[in-house]
Amino acid sequence: MSETGPPVVVVLGDDRPPLLERLGQAARLRQVTQKGLREALAEADVLLVWDFLTDALPEAWPEHGGPRWVHTASAGVDRLIFPALIDSDAVITNSRGVFERPIAEYVAGLVLAMAKDLPGTYDLQRSQIWRHRETERVAGTRAVVVGGGPIGRATARLLSALGLRTALVARTAREADPDFGRVHGFGELPRLLPEADWVVSAAPLTDETADMFDAATFGRMKRGARFINVGRGPLVVEDDLVAALREGRLGGAALDVFREEPLPGDSPLWQTPGLLVSPHMSADTHGWLEDLAEVFLSNFERWVSGRPLHNIVDKKLGYVPVAAADTPKIEEGM
Predict the structure, then answer these.
(1) What mean pLDDT do residues 18-32 have?
(2) Could you say which DSSP state residue 139 is in?
(3) What 3-state class would DSSP assign to 26?
(4) Rounded to an integer, what distance in angstroms lies between the CA atom of residue 229 and that of residue 146?
(5) How many CB atoms within 10 Å of residue 62?
(6) Is 315 a domain residue?
(7) Which of 40, 45, 99, 211 suits 238 as a labelling partner, its CA being 20 to 30 A distant?
(8) Rounded to an integer, what distance in angstroms lies between the CA atom of residue 125 and that of residue 160?
(9) Where does the D-isomer specific 2-hydroxyacid dehydrogenase NAD-binding domain start and stop, copy by copy (predicted)?
(10) Residue 319 domain flag
């Protein structure tokens, strides 16, 4: 690690992030791929995980020393939660503030597309078939959004604005929430599922949430309900979801995240009836890479000046706690 001169900022990823030229002489940049990561970490003061799908960090993390600050260009930090990093003095921050509204809009689009059967309309159009159908009204239907962080909250707010009666479920129940009145705890999910027309998974991946959507969970859902996952792939037991769709228990589903990405060509998910597959794109809107760079640059300014960082992850919980959140607006700066 650097003892004199500007701090060493190691950027992990094949592609160079935009806007980093604004760092100027304030940092010594070193961009590496997974192959050069181990050597680079030994001298790094800061690690910017631009390739946030990497699995290379646990093996490359040094036994002694290492970066004092690790920032990831993602909301989820499950790939950073490994023993050596947890036990280190390194602070972890995420890119909270970039993804919430785009993902909420994507979920709202999926709800409307399924309720109005837009995929069916497109299929009939391609076959030049004129077939009048009736569709569903979403206002007045019930939604359960699982995940009480900023993505889940933004999603629940937008669904409520569409007229859905929305319940938000988080790790810990909370009373007198300013947006939802009550936030339900995970333990209340079995009681909420049988009344839900829509179930949205937007939770972080932790030991508590892994595999939470399995055969038992789908079995508790109302027959014909729809399921959407924009959280993390391992939240869902994919074979159980396939079975629930093929048996007609669920009326439809949409997955934007998967246990293995890219999704293998031989995965049964591609051909499962009633399932919409998208390639982990719900948060990615025009200009999102610049927004991610802005979050890092704003935090870098704080780090070099000794001010508290935004978006500090609780390494034991595996996410940024809502009560402790200090999320920046995307600011102009370095």
Answers:
(1) 97
(2) T
(3) helix
(4) 10
(5) 16
(6) no
(7) 99
(8) 32
(9) 109-282
(10) no
**Residue environment code for 265-296, b if the CB has 16+ CB neighbours within 10 A, otherwise e:** eebebeebebbbeeebebbeeeeebebbbbbb
Q: Give the model's pLDDT for residue 1.
A: 47
Within a domain: 180:
yes
213 neighbors 235 (Cβ within 8 angstroms): yes
Q: Report the Cα 156 to chain-centroid distance in Å.
A: 15
141 Cα distance to chain centroid: 25
CATH number at residue 295: 3.40.50.720
Query: Closest Cα to residue 185, out of 207, 170, 202?
Result: 170
Mean pLDDT calculated for residue range 320-334: 54
* Cα–Cα distance for residue pair 28/41, rounded to 1 Å: 13
Question: With 50 as the cut, is the pLDDT of residue 334 above it?
Answer: no
* Structural domain total, the chain: 2
Element (H, E) at 110: helix 100-115
Q: What is the mean pLDDT of residues 277-305?
A: 98
Residue 29 has pLDDT above 60, yes or no: yes
| Burial (0-12, 13-18, 19+ Cβ within 10 Å), 214 | middle
Tokens standing for residue 283: 């948060």
Q: How buried is 120 (Cβ within 10 angstroms: 0-12 exposed, 13-18 middle, 19+ buried)?
A: middle
Amino acid, res. 3? E
216-245 b/e (C-beta count within 10 Å ≥ 16 → b): ebbebbbeebbbbbbbbbbbbbbebbbbbb
Rg (CA), the chain: 21
Query: What is the rounded CA–CA span in Å between residue 248 and residue 242?
Result: 10
Give the pairing of strands 91-93 and 69-72. parallel
| Same-domain status, 35 and 181 | no
**Structure tokens of 11?**
């950027």
Distances from the Cα of 209 to the Cα of 16, 54, 136, 171, 261, angstroms: 33, 21, 31, 9, 19
In a domain, 197, yes or no: yes
- Report the relative pairing of strands 181-185 and 174-177 from DSSP bridges: antiparallel
